[in-house]
Amino acid sequence: MTIHRFLPKKTSQARNHRKKSTPAECKLWVCLRNNQLLGVHFRRQHTIGRYVVDFCSIKKKLVIELDGSGHLESEDHDIERTKFLNQKGYRVIRFWNDQVMNDLESVISVIMDNLEK
Fold it and tell me: What pLDDT is attached to residue 14?
């Protein structure tokens, strides 16, 4: 049996992120929640190790990250984070917030392609 330890600070941080979702996160969540996309279950603001990811399918080992302009300044952090998640067996796909807001159909298409891998 695997024992999972959650860092209380990260769990609290994830809970706060869920309460303060960006408009892009809200818009994408409407498409991902309730197993709507190919019957795949997603979690929102899920803790993996020391990171909180925007969306995660544990079964498919897929992480979806939405980036705003603040990520332009944290590229090194994003690279480190992606490397960590890859080492844990997760594939990470990233979208800009404006992609979700302006071209949701293409975003969903990319996600579906990754779910079918």
Answer: 44
Instruction: Report the CATH number at residue 40.
Output: 3.40.960.10
pLDDT tens figures, 38-92 = 999 999 999 999 999 999 999 999 999 999 866 556 678 889 999 999 999 999 9
Q: Judge contact between 95 and 107, C-beta under 8 A.
A: yes
Quote the tokens at residue 34: 């309730």
Taking alpha carbons only, the member of 95, 86, 46 closest to residue 66 is: 95
Number of domains in the chain: 1
Strands (E) in the chain, as ranges, are 43-48, 51-57, 62-67, 91-96
